[in-house]
Specification:
Blueprint lengths: L7 H50 L4 E5 L16 E5 L3 H5 L7 H11 L2 E15 L4 E16 L11 E6 L1 E5 L2 E5 L10 E10 L2 E4 L4 E3 L5 E2 L20 H12 L6
Parallel strand pairs: 1-2, 2-7
Antiparallel strand pairs: 3-4, 3-8, 4-5, 6-7, 8-9, 8-10, 10-11
Length: 258
């Protein structure tokens, strides 16, 4: 068999080389196309993220309406509404007792007037439409931690929950967030010193200012749904919870006849 000449090798080599170059060129073209596609997709993602960020940064539209007794709130809503505040004339002033008292007088009033005094932890709050859906009331559930007074035996059976109703609250109507009146904002993992009037076993209402208990065991004011706190200051604010409970127990202790 005759040997192939050296001169034949370059032509085959050149063919293979040309073919390889063609594949490399196609690969380079495809790589450029992929890079372009990735760049376009990245640009779209960035545009989408920027647009969403700008959209989410825009504040929700808030509109205020006045309560119309027995006229459903839903009839006053507009298609473009996002947040609607329902106002009631003189509502906040009804929650505020501007009478100035000493700490001793305040404790006297609370010890005598409240049916139920307890330290409790907030569990849940649910707004309910009432008065032909023209107003909102809120059902608040608490977990009692320490009972100081229970004159109507609301918690006599070692109840694990306590129900409190108050006027005002939050509900959603057709995708619109509706808030009526001013009310306390309860927070999880926070203790409260509650002074309540017992209207029935499952219907208790706040009696006077309610108070939060801070991590330092001191009494403090509570935040309102308006984002503010009550304008007046209680003489009990800043006092130690255990000291206040001791004073309440002293007032609630049956008096021995002389």
């Amino acid at each position: 068999m005759s040997k192939r000449s050296v001169s034949e090798v370059p032509s085959n080599y050149q063919f293979i080389k040309k073919q390889s170059r063609g594949r490399c060129a196609a690969y380079d073209t495809m790589r450029v196309s992929m890079n372009t596609l990735i760049a376009v997709l990245a640009g779209c993602a960035l545009w989408s993220f920027t647009t969403e960020s700008q959209t989410s940064a825009q504040p929700l539209k808030t509109r205020q309406i006045t309560e119309q007794p027995n006229v459903p709130i839903s009839t006053q809503l507009r298609p473009e509404d996002q947040i609607v505040l329902v106002e009631r004339a003189g509502w906040e002033t009804r929650l505020v007792d501007t009478t100035k008292r000493s700490a001793s007088d305040d404790l006297d009033l609370r010890a005598a007037g409240a049916d139920l005094i307890t330290v409790a932890e907030w569990v849940s709050s649910d707004g309910i439409l009432v008065n032909n859906e023209s107003w909102i009331r809120t059902k608040v559930m608490f977990r009692p931690l320490r009972v100081i007074k229970d004159s109507k035996l609301v918690l006599a059976e070692a109840a694990s929950s306590l129900t409190v109703f108050h006027d005002g609250g939050d509900v959603r109507i057709g995708g619109v967030s509706v808030r009526a009146g001013y009310f306390y904002l309860y927070k999880p993992n926070t203790r409260y010193l509650l002074f309540l009037r017992s209207l029935s076993k499952d219907n208790n209402a706040p009696f006077g200012l309610q108070m939060a208990v801070g991590p330092d065991n001191k009494l403090s004011s509570m935040e309102l749904s308006s984002g503010q706190t009550f304008p007046e200051s209680s003489p009990l604010f800043g006092l130690d919870l255990d000291a206040v409970i001791g004073e309440l127990n002293r007032r609630l202790r049956p008096k021995t006849p002389k």
